[in-house]
Design a protein that fits this description.
The structure is a single chain. The chain is α/β, with parallel strands linked by helices and 273 residues long. It has a single domain, classed as 3-Layer(aba) Sandwich (Rossmann fold), CATH 3.40.50.720. Helix 3 links the parallel strand 1 and strand 2. Helix 3 crosses helix 9 and helix 5 runs parallel beside helix 6. The protein is globular. The relative contact order is 0.13. InterPro entries: L-xylulose/Carbonyl_redctase, NAD(P)-bd_dom_sf, Sc_DH/Rdtase_CS, SDR_fam. Belongs to the short-chain dehydrogenases/reductases (SDR) family. Keywords: NADP, Oxidoreductase. Homotetramer. It comes from Aphis glycines (Soybean aphid).
Length: 273
Amino acid sequence: MLRSICKLPHKIAGQMAVDILSRSMAGQAPQKMEDYFKGKKFIVTGSCAGMGEKITERLVDLGSFVYAVVEKEEGAAKPLPNTKQIFCDVSNWEDTYKKMYDIGPVHGLVNNAGVAVIESFFDVTEHGWDKTLNINARALVRISQAVAKNMIDAGIKGSIVNISSTISTRAIPDHTTYCASKGAVNQITRTMAIELGKYGIRTNNVNPTVVLTRMGKIAWSDPEKSGPIMRRIPLGRFAETDDIANAVIFMLSDYSTMVNGTALVVDGGFLAG
């Protein structure tokens, strides 16, 4: 059929191709994005509070089962229905791989676990540097290695979403190690997208501005600190955890099947100016 079409004049061949495509799509009602998540399995790291907690809640509400990665069993919140807590110090290279691999195949991963050690450039410490880079960047690689291996072995064309930040590209004072770690996340994501894409696994970032988690509200409560950033946000507000969860859900879903190696910036226009 296609060979025959190609022999026709260009205009006629083009119209016939469109007609054939239209007929093949007729009667196919698009699936609702929410339907994709029913019965699927996901891993969310840093799931005990803030953005990770909200993302976990949303996935469960959409009918998914979530492996909620928590650093310590001591003091951990009671797990939600349709979740299983995985206690793991993600800075431990070998233990992290084993625990993530032992979970088995999942359909998606959200690398949300992260820390922010606030130190000015001249006050950067070895401890602050190592802790921040180990958790925000190195652990992301190790977790993703295990999860992607399971996806490939199971033939799952999954989605990996890494939580980065707007200050991965636009620096602010007193965040040397955090900016460095999130800049690393951006490049790790791009590399993963190239290497895992051939298996049908997509890797993307979600890059928030300041997010008003419980800790975020405390950290940015001083107008002298928050004011300069707020004034650069055209929408005039910081992000809520729901704003980030919405972006993550989109990136995990089959509504973003051609999105790979990019960043979905959730910043109210902070980077636009």
